[in-house]
Amino acid sequence: MSTQNPVFIPGPTNIPDSVRKACDMPTLDHRSPAFARLFRPAVEGVRRVLRMEEGEIIVIPSTGTGGWEAAITNTLSPGDTVLAARFGMFSHRWIDLCQRHKLDVEIIETPWGEGAPLAALARVLRADKTGHIKAVLATHNETATGVKSDIAGIRAVLDAAAHPAMLFVDGVSSIGSMPFDFAGWGVDIAVAGSQKGFMLPAGLAILGLSPKAIMAMETARLPRTYFDFKDMLAAYARGGYPYTPAVGLIAGLAHSIDLLESEGLEAVYARHHRLAEGVRRAVFAWGMTPYAASAELYSDTVTAVKVPEGCDGTALVQLAASKYGMAFGVGLGEVAGKVFRIGHLGMLTEAMMLSGLSVAEMCMADLGWPVRLGSGVAAAQEYYRGTVPALAQAAE
Q1: Could you tell me if residue 3 is inside a domain?
Q2: Domain that holds residue 365
Q3: Per-residue pLDDT tens over the stretch 238-277
Q4: 89 and 226: one domain?
């Protein structure tokens, strides 16, 4: 696969040259004041991206999956009950992780293509008069199906039921690319990863903790060592880590946040929405639809394209890689072969997006799918022409 071509998978994302250079640094003594000076801007930058008013930021050498594990092991005990809806591969994996840790997971089975089912969550929470449920798990952006969920709505459901459960949110494929309001949505733990909206290589799990989550650490009895937040926070107070940190990635994180804030977070979110809408218009022009069940569920970071009957989405992804040197995402789990996924997050422009759409069309033509070359690209071009801000305006 050509390294000159951008990738259109929903993460890891394309890495800006300046971020790569920021990660490329000489060895630094991570127990020295120099590391503390490097680390603090990264932590405070994450706080601003999450829109946190209080609480703590934890940055762990890991991935989003490690972040999920850290969230539950630091706040819960064996046998605790958590509530989760299963509506895609990543909500399923978080449920599986909880079950392996001997938690009692109350699962609301939800059709793939739907988002978090607010009415069903409300029924379960209202019925739990004793507060048996300790946490609600929510996947903000289900990467397998291109579906976003209403996190503010889940908080409203919790509040309406006067339920004390904590709200844990998987924001791995949304944070840094789509609006996220930790304080406004009443989130207790948010989990992100370095390799998506932050445009870094994989290797950091990034978490925001509310005061309520920090209090839960006092009674949590699930085992943890590497992921122990108490150890992390005690070391942070001394300006360091309880073990060797990923110094280069942390330097890159601080620089990535500088880039996001230089563009302006609202402009970043608008760019992602614009890119996504152009992709969706291309999909409709191909005579196909996103897998998401309705427009209000459409993700702004990934579109799962439902392929025509008799076509194989995996075959398109494989052909794009082998013939054109370009990466798209395969369908996962229940939608394997039924979709291919177009990632449109991180370091992407409209011009880059058009290159991905054109390659997807060529693959469809090569495979004999019923698509007219240029149809989707033209639909996206027409949309982008009318919505891309002029460079002079964008710089003001």
Answers
A1: no
A2: 264-395
A3: 888 999 999 999 999 999 999 999 999 999 999 999 999 9
A4: yes
